[in-house]
From TrEMBL, chain A:
Species for this entry: Streptomyces taklimakanensis
Pfam families on file: BPD_transp_1
CDD domains: TM_PBP2
UniProt xrefs under PROSITE patterns: ABC_TM1 (PS50928)
Membrane topology recorded in Swiss-Prot or TrEMBL: Multi-pass membrane protein
Region of interest: Disordered: 1-35
Designated name of the protein: ABC transporter permease subunit
From TrEMBL, chain B:
Protein's organism: Streptomyces taklimakanensis
Coiled-coil zones: none
SUPFAM superfamilies: Periplasmic binding protein-like II
InterPro entries: Bact_solute-bd_prot1, SBP
Pfam families the UniProt entry points to: SBP_bac_8 (PF13416)
Domain of life per record: Bacteria
PANTHER family: ARABINOSE-BINDING PROTEIN-RELATED, SUGAR BINDING SECRETED PROTEIN
Protein name: Extracellular solute-binding protein
């Protein structure tokens, strides 16, 4: 749509460009036709965009908004999967109950722990990798595709491989440790070790994805910034710290938010980390995340109301994180603005 | 949302895998009544050629089945479909662990099979029949198989540890008392080959012991009694002893490490209902052939079994009832046992040559027909409660697994098992 002069790309105006508003003589056939066409054109311009976005909103309504509201409604009831239409009003009982539920707090702790262990190194690594890929490299496309390969792998397939790596008796990692004379590590039963192992799966899957996002943002950084920096004698590391990172700030924030959402909803990796073992996250619930706890309550224990309450707690948690992120962004913009004006004044 | 999507994906994945298997056997369905059968795990109707035989007897009928591998995925799906009254197959299987809940909460959604043509109540064990029967008399499921338990043992490991290997003598070692089973285990441990445990898991021991008692988690009035039931305490104590005495291989049943342990032969005994034989053979492979044998368990118990029900919403109710009755009739159950090892829930089948003369080549030609018939006849009438599965799984997978894998003391582990059960059952 970037060609000029074509009627298709005429700017959408309220008036339409064709006929003058005042006229004394009756319109000719040609003029009538032109007017009709112009009216049709106006309507087209006005309503087509809505028609184009409508499917999204219909799907959104059916598969996101309705479940969200329905879950909210269900969370206020006592309802079992054996009779999902049979709801008994419970008020805020499901929520108040969660506050005394040690399994919920345990799941929340695990979610945070795994979330931090997986998100922080993942984003740092992605940043470093993107910086490396941003240099002129031979076969750059190959590296970029290779980076994205783990992301394209299904969770199930990846996790099954990692389960073999982290097995206690026959796992590759313990085997390698044994060859080096180190005692085998119980990757499943120890809380911290299980969190590390699950985080490894998450890191492996998502680092490439974030790398590419960073890389795209880095390539949008104006080259002359680097040129003037190197003229000023800045090393590559200094350029990275003083030019790349500040320019990437909005992108970094974006990835932090997206990764946090992903971490809060973590489900597939911990579930499949113990194939055949159910959704309890190990004998001591040592790696049961909120997602797993929700699943266990809803689909194993059949308590739909309580599962809905957990889902809503997760949603509120995300809203809270989003709010926090918004505040941080605003604060950063302000301080940035402050710094700029300060610089100008000096 | 992501969680739900992944969950649904897993379900769909399992289902479609099996669908593609069955697709090969499908023909054209022109002008025929298509009866759908929804199953979990391996019932083996198709593999044993029963569908084919039925289609030959009834040329107007075509049977299609869908299988979900694990009941823990199958059951919630069945419940949601019953609730929305859509997506149900004409015949749906129900696991014994869920039957009490289905009878209590869903019986209006199922057809009464008790009075259907071709169904003879006296064919079945009374306890099996009663499990699927509502107190008001409606029978919503016909028993397919039962799981009378024996003990499978490795002859080579027994020999190495100086224990007898003949199945009669082995049975005598522990006859009548699960305590003896643990005592023999201690003897075994003293001379056991390097890296071989007496049994696979504490959960397995618990399961075997508790399954041979009549009352477990609920009493006849439907009250939850598992905390004070001496039978539960006995089973728990024996399982905990097995774990703390180092008699277990510390595996969780039906997980990948357990499969591998079976393949590497790192435990000497495992309690085995007939369907477990297939598992052992499958995971053990060629290298363990002839090394396993089957002996009577100290006390007969029942582990597993299923029912076939016909939902009210079935589009071909009459045909579906006919098929369900036929599939679970004694003759077909005997055939199924001969082909697939599912043990009949109809004592009548035990006299057929398919069962009476059955020997299992992989298990040193053990006369499994007789061993399991004897066990089945001794199974006590069990009181089944609606949440049996949840109680049992949390006791095994939280409590006993903590002792087995994390070295937690039995008292502490019991407390956390009770806590998870309470949390799971709390409404």
């Amino acid at each position: 749509m970037t060609t000029t002069g074509s009627p298709v790309s005429a700017p959408p105006t309220e008036q339409g460009g064709a006929a003058p508003r005042h006229r004394t003589s009756p319109p000719s056939r040609e003029e009538k036709r032109r007017e009709r066409r112009s009216r049709w054109y106006q309507r087209d311009v006005k309503w087509s965009p809505y028609a184009f976005v409508a499917p999204f909103f219909l799907f959104f309504g059916a598969f996101s908004l309705f479940p969200l509201l329905y879950t909210g409604w269900a969370s206020l009831h006592k309802v079992s999967l054996t009779a999902p239409t049979d709801m008994e009003w419970a008020g805020l009982h499901n929520f108040s109950r969660l506050f005394e539920d040690e399994f919920f707090w345990n799941a929340l702790r695990n979610t945070f722990s795994i979330g931090i262990i997986s998100t922080v190194p993942q984003l740092l690594m992605a940043l470093g990798l993107a910086h490396l890929l941003n240099y002129k490299l031979r076969g750059a496309t190959f590296y970029r595709v290779a980076m994205l390969a783990p992301y394209a792998t299904s969770v199930a397939a990846a996790t099954l491989v990692f389960v073999m790596l982290f097995g206690y008796d026959y796992g590759m990692i313990n085997w390698a440790l044994g060859a080096a004379g180190i005692d085998p590590i119980d990757w499943h039963n120890d809380t911290l070790n299980s969190h590390l192992a699950i985080s490894a799966i998450v890191i492996w899957r998502w680092t490439g994805y974030n790398t590419l996002i960073y890389l795209a943002a880095m390539q949008a950084v104006p080259k002359d910034l680097y040129e003037s920096a190197s003229l000023d004698g800045a090393s590559r590391w200094q350029q990275f710290v003083h030019v790349t990172i500040p320019s990437l700030r909005p992108t970094i924030l974006f990835t932090v938010v997206v990764s946090t959402i992903g971490a809060t909803q973590l489900f597939g990796e911990p579930l499949l980390f113990n194939p055949g073992g159910g959704a309890n996250g190990g004998p001591d619930h040592q790696y049961q995340t909120l997602g797993l706890y929700l699943y266990e309550q809803g689909w194993t224990n059949l308590h739909l109301g309580r599962a809905s309450a957990i889902a809503w707690m997760m949603f509120l948690l995300l809203v809270l994180i989003g709010l926090l992120n918004w505040l941080v962004t605003r604060w950063m913009q302000k301080s940035e603005l402050g710094r700029k004006t300060a610089r100008r004044r000096s | 949302m992501a969680a739900a999507a992944i969950g649904a994906g897993l379900l769909a994945g399992c289902a479609s895998d099996k669908d593609s298997n069955t697709g090969a056997a499908g023909g054209d369905s022109e002008g025929k009544t298509v009866i759908t059968v929804g199953l979990f795990g391996t019932f083996g109707f198709q593999e044993a050629g029963l569908y084919e035989e039925y289609e030959k007897l009834n040329p107007k009928v075509k049977i299609e089945q869908t299988v979900i591998e694990r009941n823990e995925n199958y059951y919630p799906q069945l419940l949601t479909r019953l609730a929305s009254n859509s997506g149900l197959a004409d015949i749906q299987a129900i696991e014994v662990a869920n039957i009490a809940e289905v009878v209590r909460t869903q019986s209006d959604k199922f057809v009464d099979l008790g009075k259907a043509d071709g169904v003879n109540k006296d064919d079945y064990f009374p306890w099996k029949w009663n499990q699927a029967t509502h107190p008001e008399g409606k029978t919503i499921g016909l028993g397919t198989d039962v799981g009378p338990m024996a003990l499978c043992y490795r002859k080579d490991h027994f020999e190495a540890a100086g224990l007898p290997t003949d199945r009669e003598e082995v049975a005598k070692l522990w006859a009548g008392d699960w305590n003896e089973y643990i005592e023999v285990g201690k003897q075994f441990k003293e001379k056991a080959p390097e890296g071989v445990a007496w049994t696979d898991s504490a959960g397995g021991v618990y399961n075997a012991v508790i399954s041979s008692s009549a009352k477990r988690y609920y009493d006849e009035q439907g009250e939850l009694i598992y905390k004070d039931n001496p039978a539960v305490k006995e089973a728990w104590d024996l399982a905990a002893e097995a774990a703390t005495e180092g008699l277990t291989d510390k595996k969780q049943q039906f997980t990948k490490p357990w499969d591998k342990a079976m393949n590497n032969g790192t435990f000497a005994t495992i309690s085995c209902p007939p369907w477990m034989l297939g598992y052992i053979q499958d995971k053990g492979g060629e290298k363990a052939k002839g090394k396993w044998d089957v002996a009577q368990a100290p006390k007969p118990g029942n582990w597993g079994g299923a029912f076939l029900g016909v939902p009210e919403s079935s589009r071909h109710k009459e045909e579906a009832i006919k098929l369900a009755a036929w599939l679970t009739a004694p003759t077909q159950q005997a055939k199924l046992f001969a082909e697939r090892g599912s043990f009949p829930s109809t004592p009548k089948s035990y006299e057929t040559p398919e069962v009476a003369d059955a020997k299992h080549e992989y298990f040193s030609n053990a006369p499994i027909g007789q061993i399991f018939s004897t066990a089945a006849k001794g199974v006590p009438t069990q009181v089944i409660g609606p949440k049996d599965q949840i109680v049992q799984e949390n006791i095994a997978n939280t409590g006993l697994l903590q002792i087995d894998q994390k070295g937690v003391s039995p008292d502490e582990a019991w407390e956390s098992a009770v806590k998870t059960v309470d949390n799971a059952l709390d409404e």
